[in-house]
Design a protein that fits this description.
heterodimer, A: about 400 residues, alpha+beta, 2 domains, ten-stranded mixed beta sheet, two-stranded antiparallel sheet, about 55% helix, elongated, B: about 425 residues, six-stranded mixed beta barrel, 16 helices, 10 strands
């Protein structure tokens, strides 16, 4: 125990024999750690926000459809409302919210313009907890109940159709027998969304009203389910899949949006690669510093060995020097990372890149997310690889022949 | 210049007084340079593909549109007599360029400006079984293949044969969803330009497969003439799509088109950046995060160099004191130190470029793929494997910045020499 105290004290003092070199090395390590944590926090924030947005638009962490619906989103590929077995799971403790929807492609027309849209029949009471639209009404109000036959459109669509609140638009789609179904709906609400594509692409009415209009009483196309955390959906996914059986297709958001699902999956790998690359870039300097420190003290080390200090002690002393460097550097780096990320909690405004962000699926405000796991990994990578890198100069130092070392010029 | 020669030899010898240190510093440079060369080549290769694939799909390099059409896309915002205007532009732009005779440049590339015309309208497409709302396009079958890759993506059947034919080509997913096949009929129902009821029954002659589900689910093209008839467009259309000989000549082409259009009041010319604002921005956003990472790498290497140079200067304090006492100026000494770094920098630069070029060249032959690339490719219109190209710019950009950063890092230890007092230095600071 006492030995360790002496070794580490010697190492500490040796470190400051050449304070410039030590300071430069400390700055290097601190910058490296800072870059690791800062960059990762930004990337995590970006990807997580993308996923959250996507899940709100999709919507839901898990969706149930007719097996053919996703490839062929037709009115006939409908399912019955959840049965008792499924309801039991849906109303269980692991599920935060769920809703059922009628969802068919349609053409919406005003007196002047037509657009193709996705026509949704929703239950306003449960829809609000699942998707974005109820919270983002800018004119009028959201649907009152499932029988409400008003229609909610996006702001951009309202502009394009050159229509207004309270006016009628015609929805044209097909009924189950492929007869054209069309009907006028009065606009009772306007919603605002992150992207024009959303504002132009979706219109909402009450689920009962939609079923009546389309002639599919009690049939739905989609059950959207939200769990407590989008990263941990395996549990609810399995429970739902078990309760629905093979006649339904149950899909998680990672399958519904393969791009985001994959992105979230490769993130961890990418973060680790980034850590290792940064470490390698600073390891050259670290090894160099230690090699120099050993080289300058060849005679001193020879003397110590001649006086009977065990090679193991010499080795631990060099490693201890390296640990001091890495430890203080890492501590500073962590502190700077925390200090730089904290002021950004309110989010970074990226609206000047809005269209590009939209293409990536990013939202325009970036909230960095510094997670404990990433911070621990970054420090572990630096400390453990740092010790491995300092082994070579340390072993060299411990293997000097006392006489040769003593007489070295 | 014998003196310089001596400086150089001194610098070279000084470097190898501590071979291990020099090699480690070189290693840091080579590591950073190699990474930079590979990443930059891959990145720029991807950007090029992203721009090219996205624009060649439908957008083209520039478009002439009626005012307001770009933002609103209303059927009434059309260009009168669009096909005639396009053919005037086609003649004008290509005649004045090369005297109307030879349209190939030295490499044999086609130097002509390609122009086509499209009309667009939303309609309900119905088969016997199904109906879907889609965006219908009217195109010029003889010119469309020159500005768009869609006609080349015919999976079964054929593309539209002539401007007067009564036929339509549709995406493969749309065909599957509508449950129609070649020679089946589709009914299009929508509103005409004047708000009247528009309907047409047209048979399918070709099925397009781009591999992008969204596009394959929504695309339908018919001859412009038929489109104009169906949607009561008269001789109007919505887009004049123009493809410049290559991306670097878009600006020039925009200017020339703008000149030609001066008389046709109101029509607007947009380049691809205005038409697809997301494209350039997503590249810029990606560049920012990439340069943050490169910046960190370069900074770390610069610190490493700074440490090495500082050490090499400090351990020679006595020696420098002596040569200064003998009459050597601090300037000469400073240059010596800088030259030592420069030699290291050049060695690092050359080996980094060589290794990087070898890796990129290998990637160019066998292709580079990484996990998630397939999904990313679908999002950004990229192939699942990328074959980066070797260009001088991409090879030298990163390493030159590293070189500059190392010289900058060594300037502080070199400048310190000006404050060196020979007597104190000789006593061994």
């Amino acid at each position: 125990m006492k030995m360790i105290a002496i070794v580490s004290r010697l190492a500490w003092r040796n470190l400051w024999r050449n304070h410039r070199r030590t300071l430069i090395m400390l700055v290097t390590i601190a910058v490296g750690i800072w870059a690791m944590i800062f960059m990762t926090a930004l990337m995590r924030g970006m990807v997580n926000e993308m996923v959250r947005d996507a899940v709100r638009v999709l919507p839901g962490h898990v969706q149930i459809h007719h097996p053919a619906y996703l490839d062929d989103p037709n009115i006939v590929n409908s399912i019955a409302a959840p049965d008792e077995k499924l309801l039991e799971v849906l109303n269980g403790p692991d599920i935060v919210a769920w809703t059922t929807r009628v969802r068919v492609p349609a053409v919406v027309s005003s007196a002047r313009e037509s657009r193709s849209v996705t026509f949704l029949g929703v239950d306003p009471a449960t829809e609000a907890a699942v998707s974005f639209v109820a919270g983002d009404i800018v004119q009028g109000g959201f649907l009152e109940n499932g029988d409400d036959d008003g229609i909610i459109v996006g702001r951009k669509l309202l502009e394009t159709l050159e229509t207004d609140m309270g006016k009628r638009v015609v929805i044209m789609t097909q009924d189950p027998d492929n007869e054209i179904a069309d009907r006028g709906f009065r606009i009772t609400g306007v919603f605002d969304a992150n992207t024009d594509a959303l504002e132009e692409g979706y219109v909402f009415t009450g689920v009962k009203a939609a079923q009546g209009f389309l002639g599919i009483p009690d049939r739905i196309h989609e059950v959207a389910i939200v769990g407590s955390d989008f990263r941990q959906i395996d549990g609810i996914y399995k429970a739902i899949a078990d309760a629905t059986g093979p006649d339904f297709s149950v899909l998680s958001w990672t399958e519904l949006n393969r791009y985001l699902g994959t992105l979230l999956g490769v993130m961890d790998g990418f973060v680790l690669i980034w850590f290792v690359v940064v470490f390698l870039a600073l390891s050259f300097g670290l090894v160099n510093t230690l090699v120099m420190a050993v080289f300058e003290r060849v005679r001193e080390i020879g003397l110590m060995l001649a006086l009977g200090v065990k090679p193991m002690i010499i080795l631990s002393q060099i490693i201890a020097e390296s640990l001091w460097l890495l430890g203080i550097g890492a501590l500073t780096g962590n502190l700077i990372a925390w200090l730089t990320i904290r002021p950004l909690r309110e989010g970074i405004d990226l609206s000047s890149y809005a269209d590009g962000m939209e293409m990536f699926g990013y939202s325009t405000t970036l909230y960095p997310e510094m997670t404990m796991g990433d911070v621990v990994t970054a420090n572990l990578v630096v400390l453990s690889l740092g010790i491995i890198a300092s082994l070579s100069p340390a072993i060299r130092a411990s293997r000097y022949q006392p006489v040769e070392a003593l007489t070295k010029v | 210049m014998p003196l310089n020669n001596i400086t150089f030899r001194l610098a070279w010898r000084n470097l190898w007084r501590q071979p291990r240190r020099t090699l480690l510093t070189l290693g840091a440079m080579v590591f950073a340079n190699t990474i930079l060369v590979c990443m930059i080549s891959l990145q720029f290769g991807m950007y090029g593909l992203m721009i090219d694939n996205t624009l060649s799909m439908l957008t083209g390099h520039l478009q002439v549109l009626a005012p307001g059409y770009k933002d609103d896309g209303k059927i009434r915002q059309s260009i009168d007599n669009a096909a005639a205007l396009a053919s005037v532009l086609r003649n004008d732009l290509n005649r004045s360029e090369s005297n109307g005779l030879e349209h190939k440049d030295a490499d044999g590339d086609d130097e002509r400006v390609k122009i086509s015309v499209r009309g667009k309208a939303f309609a309900l497409a119905s088969s016997e079984e199904r109906s879907f709302g889609i965006l219908v396009m009217g195109v010029l079958p003889e010119h469309e293949p020159q500005v768009s890759s869609i006609p080349g993506l015919i999976h079964r059947g054929r593309y539209l044969s002539s401007g007067t034919a009564q036929e339509v080509v549709i995406g493969s997913v749309l065909a599957r969803n509508l449950q129609v096949d070649l020679n089946d009929e589709i009914t299009f129902i929508g509103s005409g330009r004047d708000g009247s009821f528009a309907a047409a029954v047209i048979s399918v002659v070709g099925i397009i497969q781009s591999g992008m589900t969204d596009l394959d689910r929504s695309i339908a093209q018919m001859p412009l003439h038929l489109f104009q008839e169906t949607f009561t467009m008269g001789n109007g259309a919505h887009e004049i799509v123009i493809r410049a000989p290559d991306l670097s000549r878009v600006e020039e082409t925009v200017n020339r088109v703008q000149q030609r259009l001066e008389n046709d009041s109101g029509l607007k010319v947009y380049d691809w950046d205005q038409l697809e604002p997301g494209l350039k921005q997503s590249i810029q956003a990606d560049l920012i995060s990439a340069w943050f990472m490169y910046g960190v790498l370069i900074t770390l290497v610069a610190f490493s160099v700074l440490n090495t140079v500082l050490m090499s200067v400090l351990e020679r304090t006595r020696e420098f004191g002596i040569v200064m006492a003998l009459g050597l100026t601090p300037g000469r000494l400073g240059r010596l130190v800088m030259l030592e770094t420069a030699i290291m920098g050049v060695l690092g630069l050359v080996s980094g470029i060589l290794i990087g070029a070898a890796l990129v060249g290998w990637g160019g032959i066998y292709g580079i793929s990484f996990p998630g690339m397939d999904e990313m490719g679908k999002q950004f219109n990229l192939p699942a494997r990328i074959y980066p190209e070797l260009t001088v710019f991409q090879l030298t950009l990163g390493p030159s910045i590293v070189f500059a950063a190392t010289l900058l890092a060594s300037s502080w230890p070199a400048l310190r020499l000006y404050w060196l007092e020979p007597v104190q230095a000789m006593r061994g600071a």
